[in-house]
Amino acid sequence: MARRVGLPANAPIQIGLLGQIPYAEALEVLDGKTIQGRKLVVKRISDAKEAAQCQVVFFGASEKSRISELITELNNRPVLTVGDHEGFAEKGGMVNLVAGPNRIVMEINREVASQARLALSSQLLKLAKLVSR
């Protein structure tokens, strides 16, 4: 999906859950699992300081009112930001998962990911709708 440039190959992948996320239990099941030799650590977080320690952060719609503030705190840091509500990618989030007709539509803000030094898979980009701020 995304590769954090400069991260040691065996470092754990920390996934932060910020706010109320309807699919949190599905993500928490991944805690402690290993993928390509790297341990997954899934944890609930409450602020941008904790988010900056993660490689991936899922923002719940409950955080909609402070998304701009949180995203600004993470600007140019190699943290993949994922949301699930309208306008998330346009407000500076990297990946937005929104309900579309008969499927989930993935919106990607490639510019923000690039500024954060994250490389997104070309296969992932083919499946997504590209958006900008």
- Biggest sheet architecture: 8 strands, mixed
The CATH topology is: Rossmann fold
CATH class: Alpha Beta
Helical proportion, percent range: 10-25%
CATH superfamily: Response regulator
Kindly provide the radius of gyration, computed on alpha-carbon positions and rounded to a whole number of angstroms: 14 Å
Mean pLDDT equals 90
Q: N-to-C terminal Cα separation, in Å?
A: 21 Å
Quick overview of this protein structure:
This protein has about 130 residues and is an alpha/beta fold.
Features:
single chain, 133 residues, alpha/beta, Rossmann fold, two-stranded antiparallel sheet, 10 strands
What can you tell me about this protein's structure?
With about 130 residues, this protein is α/β, with parallel strands linked by helices. It has one domain (about 1-130): 3-Layer(aba) Sandwich (Rossmann fold), CATH 3.40.50.2300. It has helices at about 25-30, 50, 65-75, 110-115, 120-125, and strands spanning about 1-5, 15-20, 35, 40-45, 55-60, 80-85, 95-100, 105-110, 120, 130. An 8-stranded mixed β-sheet has the order 3-4-2-5-6-7-8-10. A two-stranded antiparallel sheet has the order 1-9. Strand 7 and strand 8 (about 105-110) form a beta hairpin. About 30% of the residues are buried.
